Amino acid sequence: MSKKFLIIIAVLSALAIGFYGYMGGFDSPDVAIATSEPVTIVGKYYAGPVENKQFGQLFQETGKALEEKKLAGTLANIYYNNPEDQNDSIKAFVGVAVKTAPMPLPSGYELRHWPGGQRVVRITSKAHFLLAPNKLYPALFDYLKNRKLKVRKQYLEMFPENGPAVIEAELI
Predict the structure, then answer these.
(1) Which of 26, 40, 122, 158 has the fewest CB atoms within 10 Å, i.e. the most exposed one?
(2) pLDDT higher than threshold 80 for residue 1
(3) Is the pTM here over 0.85, yes or no?
(4) Order of strands across the sheet with 151-159?
(5) For 41, phi and psi rounded to 5 degrees?
């Protein structure tokens, strides 16, 4: 290999590592036992394979609804089974956490509520929402395993534009 090629590879690697760091890739998640706040989500329910095209389209549709100001709030999802288990089908409610639900709701959307006042394990990270789930879920499951805690198989994800990504799981 030529010296020029090695320099190019080194520069590209440094840029990739720098970008990963900028996106919060090296951020360590914070874990705490907390009390949940009530959250109202406007969205759509999905049950089926994780790899299904329809599941991905729900996320795109939600992002578009936020962009076009049809919904105002924070990207949020509720998973009704472990979202990390790629071998299983997923049960999820994909949508936007809102302060006040728009009435009438956009066509095809419904409301779901995450209850307040519950003891939860809350994991937060400043990582970009594309990186955060891959950092938060392992931190959550390690924390639960190390402390021998159990949670309901429901997980709230929220990805505020100007704040840390959050995952909550209610303690049993």
Answers:
(1) 26
(2) no
(3) no
(4) 30-35, 119-125, 165-171, 151-159, 74-79, 89-98, 39-49, 110-114
(5) -120, 130
For residues 106 and 131, the model is more confident at 106
Cα–Cα distance, 125 to 158 (Å, whole number)? 11
Domains of the chain, start order: 30-171 (3.20.80.10)
- Rounded-to-integer distance, Cα 93 and Cα 41, Å: 9
Check residue 31 and give its pLDDT: 92
Q: 16 and 88 in contact (C-beta within 8 Å)?
A: no
Q: Long-range contacts for 23-28 (Cβ within 8 Å, ≥24 apart)?
A: 23/127, 23/128, 23/130, 23/131, 24/125, 24/126, 24/127, 24/128, 24/131, 24/132, 25/127, 25/131, 27/125, 27/126, 27/127, 27/135, 28/125
CA 81 – CA 58 distance, rounded (Å)? 18
